[in-house]
Amino acid sequence: QVQLVQSGAEVKKPGASVKVSCKASGYTFTSYYMHWVRQAPGQGLEWMGIINPSGGSTSYAQKFQGRVTMTRDTSTSTVYMELSSLRSEDTAVYYCAVSPDGSLDYWGQGTLVTVSS
Amino acid sequence: EIVMTQSPATLSVSPGERATLSCRASQSVSSNLAWYQQKPGQAPRLLIYGASTRATGIPARFSGSGSGTEFTLTISSLQSEDFAVYYCQQYNNWPLYTFGQGTKLEIK
Fold first, then answer.
1. Which residue in B1, B33, B88, B97 has the most chain A C-beta atoms within 10 A of its own C-beta, making it the best mutation to test that interface?
2. Is B72 on the interface with A (CB under 8 A)?
3. Which one of A49, A73, A97, B13 is least enclosed by Cβ atoms within 10 Å?
4. Mean pLDDT throughout B39-58?
């Protein structure tokens, strides 16, 4: 069965960067696009971007252009999301999710990133 | 960017009754529309894709309809476990996805 296991919670200071990982199993890693979605406390879901694990190509929501970088390691079936220049508004739960055919069928458990001085 | 607008923001319904949630797109998304359910402290769960196809394991009381810019999620007879927040999402403008702001379904 498809499983996405994310790295643990992080606490960062404003201006720092955070790198969250998402390890996939239960399917051929290069077959499904991987997305990152975040959710600030008490708020809705916000789509951040997508990576093709096969070739590594990415597309990001305009809001995060220049601050987010998504990468992958095919040898470990892991995708990474790095967000830089953190500010308090980036405090959120960050999810990875895969889309076999458009919709986000499988989700990771989420990683809480707290930005605080 | 395609903007997704959900209504109402909060819906109060009694168990056993029907709930109807709406989602509107700022431009046509064809049938490339999904619905998700999220409970507190949990990751979202896919309910409906392709506007009207139930995901694996989703009960038949959940149904989706619509195409173009207007979509509806209907829960025919609410069970206690159905009270949650529901999000629509378009994936027609691939690779750029967008979510609606969510509808909270609460017990009346």
1. B97
2. no
3. A73
4. 97
Q: Among all chains, which residue has been given the structure tokens 């403008």? A: B93
**Residue in the structure block whose two tokens are 């996939």:** A24
Residues A18-35: tens digit of each pLDDT: 999 999 999 999 999 999
List of E strands, B1-108 = 4-7, 10-13, 19-25, 33-38, 45-49, 53-54, 62-67, 70-75, 85-90, 98-99, 103-107
Residues of chain A with Cβ-Cβ distance to B100 below 8 Å are 44
B98 vs A: CB within 8 A? yes
CB B51 within 8 A of CB B71: yes
Q: Which pair of structure tokens corresponds to residue A66?
A: 């220049």
